[in-house]
């Protein structure tokens, strides 16, 4: 039964082609031309459980749906390293009303991706994929016209680049050419070694955020808690926001994208934070 | 450092989102593990006189991120159900989306006066 949702339950890296010769079971279906309705939405599984709870096992925290243990699409036991993450995943399963909508369960999706690793990538490959975004980082590509957008990019993006240069003690710069800025090799090495300090779980979350925002700099901004998620998403969509101000907002395209991007970015950030923190309980010394 | 507003406000908004979630599950939100976890976490980090307490800022940032996640998922789902959940639209509906109407042809389709 799980096989059915397998494809829908992973956070696929952006490079992986998602095309498959036959549509996946349960996925959207296209019927033959000539019939009246050519597209029907994918079928969803019913909510087959009543209660969701978490329990502590040997490998970490597990999710129980009634009396069954939650498994990943490859039928491995679903275990996560942090209790807070387990609670958040349990809340996702609890918030499914009648049908299980996998596209609203971003944390579950990320956990599945780490546990099953469907793209078979190791830590080095993850880091390389993440640092590659620096060469085409959104905030490093500027426009020369229109004047309003030029000024907006200068006021909003430049402080972020400056922050990253200072925080990591590197040189980044920006460019208006289609070839992008020339990023020195030392900068890439710095980011590579910084990312290597995270564990695989956190790294998967960070890579997911980078792929959403299309920017390593903005992603490090949220991971380092320098800017909130909403701000990072706004900066990532700066040109779109500018065009919306000019031409108007279309709810079913712009807002739809905005909320999805926010949800994904927030999920990746939270995932990275929850998976990289050690015990945070520190008792303050009492002073007389 | 990101400015996130007051932690109390974040907590209140989070509880509101949890109420939406628990309404779907059909249970009071106070029974949810997430509620208990949040309450304990906020209580444990409340007592501090530091101007900038790192642990508290971290917790607040995490709470704000979680709030953003819950809120965005809810809003996204609402839009999805209105616009994208029912399969392909008819020609009339598609035209209506962009504020247009299909032309009226008194003699039926293909009618030429």
UniProtKB/TrEMBL annotation, chain A:
It holds the Pfam family ATP12. Its main location: mitochondrion. InterPro entries: ATP12_ATP_synth-F1-assembly, ATP12_ATP_synth-F1-assembly_N, ATP12_ortho_dom_sf. One of its GO terms (biological process) is mitochondrial proton-transporting ATP synthase complex assembly. It is found in: Mitochondrion inner membrane. Keywords: Chaperone, Membrane, Mitochondrion, Mitochondrion inner membrane, Transit peptide. GO terms for cellular component: cytosol; mitochondrial inner membrane; nuclear speck. It is a peripheral membrane protein. Belongs to the ATP12 family. Interacts with ATP5F1B; involved in the assembly of the F1 component of the mitochondrial ATP synthase (ATPase). Interacts with FMC1. PANTHER family: ATP SYNTHASE MITOCHONDRIAL F1 COMPLEX ASSEMBLY FACTOR 2 (PTHR21013:SF10), ATP SYNTHASE MITOCHONDRIAL F1 COMPLEX ASSEMBLY FACTOR 2/ATP12 PROTEIN, MITOCHONDRIAL PRECURSOR (PTHR21013). This is ATP synthase mitochondrial F1 complex assembly factor 2. It comes from Chrysemys picta bellii.
Automatic annotation (TrEMBL), chain B:
Pfam families: Complex1_LYR_2. GO terms for biological process: apoptotic mitochondrial changes; dopaminergic neuron differentiation; mitochondrial proton-transporting ATP synthase complex assembly; motor behavior; negative regulation of lipid catabolic process; regulation of type B pancreatic cell proliferation; response to toxic substance. It comes from the Eukaryota. GO terms for cellular component: mitochondrion. CDD domains: Complex1_LYR_FMC1. InterPro entries: FMC1_homologue (IPR037667). Belongs to the FMC1 family. PANTHER family: PROTEIN FMC1 HOMOLOG. Plays a role in the assembly/stability of the mitochondrial membrane ATP synthase (F(1)F(0) ATP synthase or Complex V). This is Protein FMC1 homolog. It comes from Chrysemys picta bellii (Western painted turtle). The lineage of its organism: Eukaryota, Metazoa, Chordata, Craniata, Vertebrata. The gene is FMC1.
């Amino acid at each position: 039964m799980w096989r059915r949702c397998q494809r829908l339950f992973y956070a696929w890296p952006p490079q992986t082609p998602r095309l498959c010769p036959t549509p996946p079971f349960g996925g959207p279906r296209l019927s033959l031309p000539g019939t009246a309705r050519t597209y029907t939405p994918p079928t969803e599984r019913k909510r087959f459980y009543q209660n969701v709870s978490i329990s502590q096992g040997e490998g970490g925290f597990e999710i129980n749906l009634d009396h069954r243990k939650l498994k990943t699409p490859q039928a491995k036991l679903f275990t996560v390293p942090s209790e807070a993450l387990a609670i958040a995943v349990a809340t996702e399963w609890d918030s499914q009303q009648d049908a299980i909508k996998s596209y609203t369960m971003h944390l579950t999706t990320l956990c599945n991706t780490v546990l099953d690793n469907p793209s078979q990538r190791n830590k080095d490959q993850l880091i390389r994929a993440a640092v590659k975004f620096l060469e085409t980082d959104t905030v490093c590509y500027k426009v020369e016209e229109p004047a309003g957008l030029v000024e907006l990019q200068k006021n909003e993006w430049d402080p972020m680049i400056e922050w990253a240069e200072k925080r990591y003690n590197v040189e980044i710069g920006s460019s208006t050419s289609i070839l992008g800025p020339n990023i020195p090799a030392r900068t890439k090495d710095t980011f590579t070694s910084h990312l290597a300090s995270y564990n695989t779980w956190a790294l998967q979350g960070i890579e997911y955020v980078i792929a959403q925002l299309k920017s390593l700099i903005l992603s490090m901004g949220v991971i380092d808690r320098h800017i909130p998620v909403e701000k990072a998403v706004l900066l990532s969509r700066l040109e779109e926001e500018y065009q919306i101000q000019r031409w108007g907002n279309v709810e079913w395209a712009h807002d739809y994208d905005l909320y999805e991007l926010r949800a994904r970015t927030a999920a990746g950030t939270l995932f990275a934070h929850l998976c990289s923190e050690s015990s945070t309980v520190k008792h303050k010394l009492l002073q007389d | 450092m990101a400015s996130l507003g007051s932690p109390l406000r974040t907590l209140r908004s989070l509880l509101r989102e949890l109420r939406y979630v628990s309404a779907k599950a059909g249970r009071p939100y106070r029974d949810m593990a997430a509620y208990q976890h949040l309450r304990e976490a906020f209580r444990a980090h409340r007592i501090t006189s530091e101007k900038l307490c790192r642990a508290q800022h971290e917790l607040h940032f995490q709470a704000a991120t979680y709030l953003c996640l819950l809120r965005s998922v809810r809003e996204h789902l609402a839009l999805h159900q209105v616009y994208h959940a029912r399969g392909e639209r008819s020609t009339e509906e598609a035209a209506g989306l962009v504020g247009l109407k299909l032309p009226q042809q008194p003699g039926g389709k293909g009618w030429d006066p």
